[in-house]
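tool_call predict_complex ligand=iron/sulfur cluster
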Amino acid sequence: MAEFACKFGHKSYRANQLLRWIYKDYVSHFDEMSDIAKDFRQTLLSQAAVVTPEIKVDHLSDDGTRKWLLDVGASNSIEMVFIPEDKRGTLCISSQVGCTLECTFCATGRQGFNRNLSSGEIIGQLWLANHKLLSDNQNYNEKPITNVVMMGMGEPLTNYKNLVHALEMMLDDHMFGLSRRRVTVSTSGLVPAIDDLREDCPVSLAVSLHAPNDLLRNVLVPINKKYPIKALISACNRYIEKAPRDFITFEYVMLSGVNDSLDQAKELIKIAQQVPCKFNLIPFNPFPNSGYLCSANKEIKQFKQVLMDANIITTVRKTRGDDIDAACGQLAGQVNDKTKRTLKLKAAHD
Ligand code: SF4
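tool_result ok
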């Protein structure tokens, strides 16, 4: 921003004024930025614009979960979800249109990959959600979003450069000023990029584990063939040396009869003994032709107990926004199945 101001012959301190208007006051029209010098405003009006993805669908669930489908041009849609809780508000945002990685239980993977989001499109989601929530509910004293999770559509670490730039903007005190602990990158386990993130911008890390051994993980999370569990655990241990939290969160989707037996829970304990971690069990949110069912509540409870008995902190993700298809990729999938992968899989099942 300072460079931008200087380029057009204005003082660099104007940049901070501008950032304050955009990121603290959520003003997007330059002519409303009253204390900005007239000549700088003229430059802004002729040379710049504050642009965010456009809201295509806005769903509010009975439990307060809010899900937006956003238009990022050329018939491409992405999703973001706001999950309000007592003391925090978490925004789940997307990093790509679709995804290249084809995890078999994932609605986004089914849509194939279209393109990476720019850092502006990633950060634009956070700006837009804060702006929308603040303007819809004047009762918020502060920004409604306290936590960000990069768990929406896409594998963030395959869009590395834009991701890191967006993370830096989330952390910057002149912009969103979030703490590193409250920003989480979720990855399916790209080992070299985990090492890079450790050096470039260590934030909280969540890893989509989903299986207790390579044999099953190769099927559910195919990137495992390239970076198997042993290599992944080593990368997690290296990451923790610089991470803002002293543990890794392992995400584990509960798939009935696939990865939810008590023996599999016991196998997981062996993994958990190799790296400081917590487990987050995620009841599978079925989507058409997924080929998977969610584990029964009883199974999930027993699975959790096995881990807890081994002193592993384990939570079960509350199912939120069931009435609005809040599982990642579901809403966009209804709108746009780029690869027709769902149809091919259905044909294979039939
Ligand atoms: S789970 Fe994540 S990495 Fe795997 S296909 Fe879905 S979006 Fe991509």
